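Reader question, answered in our methods column.
A reader sent in the components of a multi-part assembly and asked whether the whole thing could be modeled at once rather than chain by chain. We filled in our standard form and ran it. Here is what they sent:
COMPLEX SIZE: three components
ENTRIES:
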Amino acid sequence: MQSSMAVEVRGVTKRFPGPSGGAGSEVIAVDNVTLQIHDGEFFSMLGPSGCGKTTTLRMIAGFDHPTTGEIYIHGKRMGLTPPYQRNTNMVFQSYALFPHMTIARNIAFGLEMKKVSRKEIGRRVGEALELVRLQGYGPRKPNQLSGGQQQRVALARALVNRPEVLLLDEPLGALDLKLRKEMQIELKTLQREVGITFVYVTHDQEEALTMSDRIAVMHQGKVLQMGGPTEIYEQPCCRFVADFIGETNSLDGVVQGQEGDLVTVLVDEALPVMVQTSESFVPGAPVSIVVRPEKIQLSPEAPDSGFNSFPCQVEQMVYLGTDTRYRVRLSDNVSLMIRQQNILSGFDPSSRVVDGGQPVRAVWPYTCGRILLD
Amino acid sequence: MTANSSTPEKHSLLDVIRRRPGIQVFLLIFPSLFWLVLFFAIPLIIVFVYSFLKRGPYGQVVWDFNLNNYARFFDPLYLKIFARSFKIAGITTVLSLLLGYPMAYWIATRTPKWRNILLLLLMIPYWTNFLVRTYAWILILRDSGLINSLLMGWGLIAEPLPLFGNDFAIIVGLVYGWFPSVVLPCYAAIERLDFSLVEAAQDLYANEARAFFRVIFPITLPGVIAGSILVFIPSLGAYVTPDLLGGAKSVMIGNVIQSQFLSVRDIPFGSAFSFVLMVIMLGATLIYFRVGARTL
Amino acid sequence: MSTLVQERKHTRVARRGSRLGRGLRALITGSGILGFLFLYIPILILIIFSFNASRFVTTWSGFSLRWYGELFQDDAMMLALRNSLVVAVVSTLISTVFGTLVSLAMERHRFFGKLAFDALLYLPIIIPDIAMAVMLLLFFVMSKITLSLTTIIISHVAFNISFVAIVVRARLVGFDRSLEDAAQDLGANEIQTFWYVTLPLLMPAILGGALLAFTLSLDDFVITFFTAGVGSTTLPLRIYSMVKLGITPEINAISALMLMTSMTLLMLSVILQRKGGGSVADIA
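And here is the structure of the entire assembly that came back:
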């Protein structure tokens, strides 16, 4: 028995009856999903709306039950156990603070239900408020707090019960950008401090990359890829993941040949792109090559071997403060997006490669492309 | 990995209820269902059945199914009563609209805080005792009432004006009682109005009145219709108002029903009358839900 | 055309409708004010003249509480008052409980026949008083139930369930279900969730509905008239028979009292509902 498995989702499918009620209009929200979440890790489920991540989270919490498949928490099969009998706690997207209770009573609620002694409740509520840095806010009511503060109360309310697993349903969605970034760091630190397993749901890929130990990218009810942030970003398994996480360039083409670990793909019937890979590809297979914008450079000359290099026309240049983003055209049908850090100060044209009219090449190493089968 | 035994599931009463939403629903609706079926649906059916029976010579009910009661509606006496009731209800509706629509417009164009206060002020009398408010008009309209006394006292008239005991009084009473229910739907429709449409209209039509009739009024028409029905229905079924403010000649449908049941004791006929009234009401309500409420 | 242009220059204000031109605007403001005057003047007249020392509406002979005093010495009136209160309290209690339960069912569950039941719930409100009164009378007569206070109570509950349901349902529609999820997540079972979270948040609406039912019961005339037995006179019934016999100033006093009570109760009801998150327009 693997006791380091905090949550195990085994072959879970969830079907909802469609609006007309008949079997034909069913919605398959979660499609045969299997996940293993380790103890103490920060695990995220990432995907666009409707991909099934929230439904999966709710099933772990006990608000919904799988149509088929099982969910285990620390080895115990959950079955039809209702939420109030599970050792999980959830932080809701809307915080769901009880408006008619004070902050202290909100936080104490779970403990009250467990019939913890008055004294103990007082002590633990105080601890929880300290943990989220809201000491002294006990007597206030939720509507007297800002969004960020309410969110922290929701967190405290969940954590004070010392759950086995903490579930978070897009908790930072309602906060403004700066606050959200602060809270991301706070949450991550908190998780390290407290050591509880966090299962986090979000549609913001940057958030997931920032905070998670491992990410499951979901789409249309299925888990497309599961792995650490680096793996997900650098080695997307498919087009959707590549597109969803960060920005990417996709070059469609046909495999021409493979020599050892070097594959040649003919893009747009004219551009031979080389990719270094450990996989094998059959000539004639239609594929896409994904290249991240920051891996491509603009250079006046063709570099040594080991690099793809194509002449291009700079169509657009956008200054983004930390980076500059270029749109360049390789041929009628092929254009690339390039991001280069503004290492040299300012937007000084003379320090840049690109100058109006000068011929320039888009360059990237063979190792920086990834081939995806269409 | 071996799964432990599943968490023991207690089969308490709570579990049973939780497992079957059907039982939950049943428990929730049973009291009301019981009450409404026994004391509403069944009486309704009884009235329907009775409308086909006959009155015996001593006022008892004879179980002889026939359509005589319904045929009697075509008796000129009753046709006149229907006609009068429709006429009164119609006039009441029109007058209520003439008063209520501009009033709704006025409220809708106040500041939000005032809007709520005004609406509250509007609705509170509406929910108080109808009998008492109708009685107030007796004090005002009758020969020795406020208006006549004042006018005679100031020497403006020699004889009291016939403001009471006739259709006029009934209409005043009905408008008074029901015009707030015109205001609310009209208010809802006007409040949703996008006033840039009004401005556009004024660019097109040189004349404000035209802008109103061509643009504002048509858009708020669903509210107008809804409000009209909300006044027409209770006016048609009025009983207290004609009873207190009308005279012997100003009988409406409601009064006929009452007299059939309590004085004449022709219960079958009264039932038929009552049933026809209900059907008319239901028809009007359906129109309300189709036309008015849908677009609100 | 020029007047319009001039007017447009003046009216840069956000006040909607102010562009409609002076004539129309005057008409609208006029009918607004007129409408409220029309609504309240008869009420005011009634209240004012209940304090009139003279028994005639035509003359004002000073402020007096004489008629109120006579009210409290009128045994029949006091009996009617007691009856009204008993009926109102009992029917309110029953219809509030039933109405709340029904609201929960209608707003949170789907079930067979829900649409039909919804129609049944709305019917008592739509049907004219006289039709419902007659229906109930016939029912009681047929079932050989003697008319009494009990039959009045039964009848009042029959229509008040629907009114309470409307008020409570309005509040339930926007109810944040995630609060109940949170409660369950924190360890409260269904009953505890209802008790600690749902009910307290619903209470303003329930009380608002109860107050509405109370007022409607207190004020009801037509249905009560037909379903009351001998000796179970309520206040409106008593007022009616007094009016039929002849206008006396006592009627003014009791009428004024009833009006003031209803209006106060109604304002309370609305305030309670607002606190709970409903709105004035929900009442209609």
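What stands out: Chain B touches chain C through 100 residues (CB under 8 Å). The CA atoms of residues 70 and 272 of chain B lie 6 Å apart.
Send us your own complexes using the same form.
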